[in-house]
Amino acid sequence: MNLSTKLEKLAFILVLLMTLLQVFYGMFAYFDPSTFANVRGTELFSAMDDDWITIYGSRTLFITLVLGYLLYSRNYLVLMWCALFGTIMPITDGFLAYEAQAPAKVVIKHLATILYLVVTFFVLKKLVSKNALETK
Known about the structure:
Layout (H helix, E strand, L loop, with lengths): L5 H26 L1 H8 L9 H23 L3 H10 L2 H12 L4 H31 L2
């Protein structure tokens, strides 16, 4: 791994942390759906709904594999858009947690995730722009 600049190192670390968190969430949702739902702020009404959280976990793991591959191949342009478009998930999660009257710290965690993704987007945007200028 030869990360040539501080900006690229920062971008790589931000995406890596995002990817590792998704691995954790995917595995957590897959292996303990009810607890995962509670932690995310949307308690299940019935244990029979666990399968929906397991489905969430499998899709989260898929997203993780895609992000991991994009990071491995250093496709920063696509990762930039993934960070921006990915904000739809914590926006939705935060809204659902708020509607479910989850503790404020759960909603704040979703807001912090939105901020993290937006910051990651701008770091990646700066890196992509810098790389485009260097290749001209």
